Amino acid sequence: MNQNTAEEGKTLAVVSYLTIIGSVIAIIMNNDKKNEFTAFHNRQGLGLCLMYMIIGYFISQFDNMQISVAFWVGMGLLFFYGIINAISGKMQAVPLVGPFFQKIFSSLGK
């Protein structure tokens, strides 16, 4: 990947981290261009959004603010890490779960 590819795909890469709707929009808009930088961040963003909704559903069953805050802080850090990498033009996976998202969503962007 060259620097020009990252510059072209930065906007959609950042959008892919902004809720599940942003991920879907970024995936649809990247279907024509097939930018590998955007596709990488689409996989990361979609995975984080789905993980947030699934784990958030189970966390909401607990009536404990400490558990909820720990979940929000943890997910917030993962989203922040992804957004910062997208803005800086890096294709660096999100810690812990990033390689898993790249594997299960490998068909996105190809």
Automatic annotation (TrEMBL):
Transmembrane portions of the chain: 12-29, 41-59, 65-84
Source lineage: Bacteria, Pseudomonadati, Bacteroidota, Flavobacteriia, Flavobacteriales
The protein's name in its UniProt record: DUF4870 domain-containing protein
Keyword terms, alphabetized: Membrane, Transmembrane, Transmembrane helix
Domain of life: Bacteria
Record has Membrane as a keyword: yes
